[in-house]
Amino acid sequence: MTQKTQSLYDRIGGEEAVAGLVDHFYDRVLDDPELEPFFRYTPMEKLRSMQLEFFAAALDGPVKYTGQPIDYIHQGRGITTKHLTRFMGHLLMTIREFHPNEKEVDEMIQRISTYADDVLDGAPGDSE
Ligand code: HEM
């Protein structure tokens, strides 16, 4: 029987599971020709470790996110809804592959989606 008190992080398998998920997710993102250019000048080792912290913390794991605020890091990069939709699509596919339990898939997507507005450029009219 599942314990209600366990964090989402623990329920999905803890550190090892989240690390595998984040790695796989970024492989998908970088394979996407629409998204890859955004990451061309990004040191991937740092990004992966920051993302791992971020995901672990967002899923209530015993980890503190030490990276930059999400709006600060993304604003001004020209990220539009189209990019965000693709990004979230890769996340959904990755999570589904790793965790066929729909309830946890939904919970994870919901947690990460709460940051969606922070990554989009605020200016109206950038919906290309
Ligand atoms: C809800 C969606 C997203 C979340 C939660 C998220 C989260 C993060 C995190 C935690 C970092 C690391 C910050 C740091 O290094 O301090 C990061 C970096 C980055 N993200 Fe996102 N991200 C999201 C969507 C996107 C999208 C849609 C794009 C582009 C298509 C994107 C492009 C980038 C880039 C280029 C960096 C690296 C910036 C650098 O060079 O340091 N992100 N993101």
List the helices and strands and how they pair.
Blueprint: H1 8-11, H2 14-30, H3 44-58, H4 70-74, H5 81-98, H6 102-113, H7 116-119
Helix pairs in contact: 2-3, 2-5, 5-6
The protein binds protoporphyrin IX containing FE.
The site of protoporphyrin IX containing FE has 21 residues, from helix 3, helix 4, helix 5 and helix 7.
**Secondary-structure class:** mainly alpha
Attached small molecules: protoporphyrin IX containing FE
Residue windows where pLDDT falls under 50 for at least 5 positions: none
CATH topology: Globin-like
What's the count of strands?
Answer: 0
Shape summary? globular
Q: Determine the N-to-C terminus distance.
A: 47 Å
Largest sheet data: none
CATH homologous superfamily annotation: Globins
How much of the residues is beta strand, in percent? Answer: under 5%
Architecture per CATH nomenclature, i.e. the level-2 architecture: Orthogonal Bundle
Number of helices: 7
Order of helices and strands: HHHHHHH
Helix coverage percent: 55-70%
CATH class: Mainly Alpha
How many separate domains make up the residues?
1
